[in-house]
Design goal:
The chain is an alpha/beta fold. It is about 35% helix and about 20% strand. The strands form 3 sheets. A 5-stranded parallel sheet has the order 4-3-5-6-9, with helices on both faces. A two-stranded antiparallel ribbon has the order 1-2. Helix 1 packs antiparallel against helix 2, helix 2 packs across helix 9 and helix 4 crosses helix 9.
Length: about 280
């Protein structure tokens, strides 16, 4: 695996900047994850866990269940190739950054998506892009093809290639819309035993509203949505509370689907962010 990444780095001279950054992040992270085990669909026993809504009755270990008060599921180590489906929100709100020293939310999301794709491809999984007609890719050298197809992703949808049961999805967005808007898409996948992670990408200024005095806020996706605040300080506490409440709603919704939620500031080093995301995707 390390050799694959080394060879990729040697050939990376002509690759776009974001792809180079993603390769650097993946290479840096990969040094510390050799030998980790993960849950999946292989044949080697891994562990028992409590039965959860959405689990198939076929997965219940009846012998282990008979010894205890609750139903238990036998989990297996990941040996067969799986498909990880990725989505990066391409709407205008993702182009925001509060400082030239920070990446836009879109660039940050793309670096994480590509770095995670590199880890998945190196681990023998396939990687697909939701909402595109690109077939799931299975080789490390196809990472540039994934990068080239990213502009085809705009709004979250399952058009194009469908997500197979028991696949995995990672959704990168700021999720600045009602949580209920996610339900039809995510709930449908959860019913097919698809595991997922909602990754909220936000700029630090969007969390703390650090501005002072009279400020005009412009909605990036609605030309008529401008708001003028005569005194931003007066609404900061209420704004921070609502921001936190929205994150809690996203987390609650994710848990209801058997998924996970991860909130990431664009000020977080991408290597650190990838570590958190990797642990969530592998169930650690």
């Amino acid at each position: 695996m390390a050799e694959t990444l080394h060879n990729a780095a040697a050939l990376a001279g002509d690759l776009p900047g974001l792809l180079l950054q993603a390769e650097k992040v993946a290479h840096s992270f990969m040094k510390g994850v050799h030998g980790r085990r993960r849950v999946g669909m292989g044949e080697a026993f891994w562990q028992f866990r409590h039965y959860a809504p959405g689990d198939s009755a076929r997965d219940i270990d009846w012998r282990q269940t008979a010894k205890r008060d609750d139903a238990y599921v036998r989990e297996l180590e990941w040996e067969a190739a799986q498909t990880v489906w990725m989505y990066r929100d391409g709407t205008d709100s993702m182009n925001f950054r509060s400082s030239k020293n920070l990446p836009t939310k879109k660039d940050y999301a793309e670096v994480l998506l590509l770095a995670l794709s590199m880890l998945a491809l190196n681990g023998g999984e396939q990687v697909g892009l939701l909402g595109t007609d690109l077939a799931p890719q299975s080789h490390y050298n196809s990472i540039q093809r994934l990068f080239e197809y990213l502009p085809h992703q705009t709004h979250l949808s399952e058009t194009g290639r469908s997500v197979a049961a028991k696949s995995h999805v990672a959704l990168f967005s700021d999720f600045y819309y009602p949580v209920e808007n996610l339900t039809p898409f995510c709930e449908k996948l959860a019913l097919r035993h698809v595991q997922g992670v909602l990754v909220q990408i936000f700029d630090p200024a969007e969390q703390t509203l650090p501005y002072k005095g009279r400020v005009k806020f412009i909605d990036a996706e609605d030309a008529n949505g401008a708001i003028i605040m005569p005194q931003v300080e007066a609404v900061r506490v209420d704004y921070e509370r609502k921001f936190e409440e929205h994150q809690k709603k996203l987390g609650t919704a994710a848990r209801a689907w058997g998924w996970r939620f991860l909130a990431l500031s664009t000020a977080t080093p991408p290597e650190q962010a990838l570590g958190k995301l990797y642990d969530m995707m592998t169930g650690e």
